Sequence to fold (130 residues):
Amino acid sequence: MLIRRRAFLCGVVISGLAEGGAWADGASDLAPDFQKDVLPIFDAKCIRCHGGKRRGGKLDMRTMDSLITGGESGPAIKKGNARKSLLIELIHYKEMPPKKERPTVTQGELELLRKWIDAMPMAPAGSSGK
Ligand code: HEC
Fold:
């Protein structure tokens, strides 16, 4: 009986995570979704300088395509490889958002962005997605 009850509780926890998108604690392995999980972060912290009229470094962060195309320094994200993605590097070294700008990106959000990029299928060799 005890064992069965535990299994039941476990199921409740897992379905709760899937619905709530509890990314901050890194407990779920589901890939974050661009529209639902990632864009709200960019919207709050990046897009006022990277989209519409202002485009710092010529980078528009409003769509996946424009992120992959990137800005003056090349692609902002490298599919399937967060470690080699400029966007992650700049947040990690606290260069983006620029110093003294608020709000900054939290550690939990940075982890979410890393997961999002790492979960992308890599571009086939020889294509432009490098
Ligand atoms: C206050 C305005 C501002 C905010 C907010 C901001 N940026 Fe930037 N960003 C800039 C400017 C300006 C540049 C160009 C810097 C340069 O060329 O020296 C830049 C450059 C970049 C680049 C390099 C583009 C390239 O190809 O050279 C990336 C990647 C980037 N930002 C990511 C982000 C991310 C991610 C966020 C949000 C977490 C963010 N930025 C928030 C102003 C901003």
Notes: Strands lie at 50-51, 54-55. The first strand starts at residue 50 and ends at 51. Residues 43-119 form one domain. The two ends are 54 Å apart (CA to CA).
